[in-house]
Amino acid sequence: MALVYATKAGNWSDTTVWNTGALPGSGDDVFASGWAVTINQNISARSLNTYASGSASAGGGFTNAGGYTVSVTNGYNGGTTTCLTLGALGCSVTGDSTGGPTGGAIGINVASSLVGTVTYVGNATANGTASYGLQNLGTATVNMTGNATGSNNTTGTGVNNASTGTINMTGNAYGGTGNGAHGVNNGAGGIVNVTGTATGGGFSNAYGVNNANTGTATINGIAIAGSAAPGAVNVSTGTMRVTRAVASTGSSISIAGVTGSVVGGLTVVKELEFGTGGQVPVSGFVKFDNSTAIKAQVRRENNTNVNLIDTASGGYPANSDVRYGVTNGSGTGTMRVPLPNQTQAGILVDNTVGTAANLTTADIVSAVQSALPRFVHAATEQSVGDQLAATFSAS
C-alpha cells in the first residue's frame, strides 16, 4: 500500500501525472492533491481522496468521463471538494462514499449533464455540514445498492437527489444527529425509491427519508421513528408512499414513523404499527392505500398487540380457509364441513344445499322388499328367527 498523488492535471493513464511516475495500483490510496484528474480507463484502488495527507494537498478531484468501471475498497473520501464526479452514461462504481468533513464536500457527484443510468454499489455517508455521500445533480437514474446515513452536522445528507433525476436504492436510510441531516433527501421534483428501512435520526428534523418538494418518494419497507425524528416525512406537495409506518419504540417518547406535513401533499401508508406505549405511527395528513388490504398492529391496555384487518379490502381469510386441515396466514382450520351429497336435500351446507335423498319409512320398506322379495312373507311368522327363515326360504 502506498500514498500516491497527482502532481498536475491530466488523465489517469498518464504516468507523468503521478508523483511515483507510475500508475496507481489496487492497493494505493490516491489523492487528487488539488488537481483535476480524468479517469480514462477502468481502475481499482484502495481509496480516492480530496483531503490533505502527508505530501498530498487538499482539493482537486477525479472525473469518470467515459463510462468506465471504478472500484475502491476504502472509499471515495471528499475532503474539501467533490472526490469523484460521474459524467458519462454507463458508469459503474463500487466502494463506500463519504462527504465531508469540510462543508460542501461530496463523496460521489453525478453531473447535471449526465443523461442515462449509472450503477453504484456502496454506502453513502455524510460527515460534514452541507456535505453529501452521494448526490444526483441532474436527470440521471442512479441504481444504488447500499445504505445512506446522515451527518452529525447541519444538513449533511447521505444521498441527495437534487433535481429531477431518479434514485433507486436497495438499502436502509438513517437520519443523522445534525439539523436537517437526512439519510436520503429528495430535494426537488425527482423520484426516490427505497427498498429497505427508513429510520429517523437524533435531531428533530433529521429524517430517514425526506421528500422536500414536489417529487415522489416511495419506501418499499418500513419507516420507523428514531430517537428524535420520524422515519419518513413528506414536507411539501409531493407524493410519499410507505409500506409500513412504525411509531417510536421507547415508552417515554412519542414520534410518528411517517408524517405528512401539508394538506396539499399526498402521503400514503399501507400498514400501521403502534408503539409499545401506544404511540401513534403517523402524524399530520396521512391516508391509507386503497389498493390492498389495510392492516394495523395496535397496542392494548394490557400491553399486548393485536392485528386489525380491513375486511372490506379482502385482507381476511377466505371462507374455505376455516375448513379442517387448511392452512392460512392465521393458522390451520378446524371446522369439518360435510359434503352436499352427504347432507339431506334442501339443508344448507357450506355455500349450497344438501343433495342426498329424503327417505321415508315406506321408502325404506319398499326398497328392502324390492331387493328381497321373500321378505313379504316374514310378517306371518311369530318370531324374529322365524321371520328371517321365512324370508330366505319361502318360494
Account of the 3D structure:
The protein is mostly beta strands. Among the domains are: 1-171; 341-393, no CATH class. The chain has two helices and 38 strands. It has helices spanning 361-371, 384-393, and strands at 3-5, 10-11, 29-31, 36-39, 43-45, 47-49, 61-64, 69-72, 76-77, 84-86, 92-94, 97-99, 106-110, 117-121, 124-126, 132-136, 141-145, 148-149, 157-161, 166-170, 173-174, 184-186, 191-195, 197-199, 209-211, 216-224, 232-234, 239-246, 258-260, 266-273, 282-284, 287-288, 295-299, 305-309, 327-328, 331-332, 348-349, 352-353. A hairpin with a 2-residue loop joins strand 35 and strand 36 (331-332). The protein is elongated, with a radius of gyration of 36 Å.
